Fold this sequence. Notes:
By secondary structure, this protein is α+β, with helices and mostly antiparallel strands. 26% of the residues lie in helices and 37% in strands. It has six helices and eight strands, in the order E-H-E-H-E-E-H-H-E-E-E-E-H-H. Strands 1, 2, 3, 4, 5, 6, 7 and 8 form an eight-stranded antiparallel beta sheet that branches. Strand 5 (107-120) and strand 6 (128-139) form a beta hairpin. The longest helix is centred in the middle third of the chain and has 15 residues, at 80-94. It is globular.
Amino acid sequence: RGVNSLYYDTPNLDFASSNISGESKRIKIRARWYTKLNEDFSESFVKDNQVFRIEIKRKLNNLSDKIEFSKISFKKKNSMQERKLFLKTELKSNISNNPTLSKNSFQDIIFICYNREYYEHFLSSDIRLTIDSNIFCSDSTVSKNLNKSIISSNFFLVELKFKEFDNSLIKKIMKEFPFRQVRSSKYLYGLSKYKRFSY
């Protein structure tokens, strides 16, 4: 299916900076929605009955998880600006009880969209592998003429997802995996296209 995200950051791009510097504890905040393969992301973003979820992805060293807030459904079609404003209001509401996050000012930064395939390990449904392709980004700060920039012109992103208690089996899988493990951030790839951010 198509996976689409609108990423938020502080005006100084503090979340991006913490990722670049390799801080062991860091987060990303996004509004996420799903579409059919190759469905236009900008049309799906504003259409009626589209369902979104605000997510906070947390990273601690090599492990990560995410907090998912309640789903947000729109009954009617909105303009791009109206929908972005409503999602930003929902974000503020969802983090209002978090003293660390709520003191920040957030703005939407960039759209990241891609196609994703899902696989489950035959011994454990708690171990999944995803393959992301056709990854592109679009600057969300412009009001008209959203331009798409391809990120993955010569690669796929493969990610292994598992619960921490499966760590021994994961080590065995990774040992036999034919690729080298690297750090990768679609958000930072996107920023490098539009925000003069080196990645």
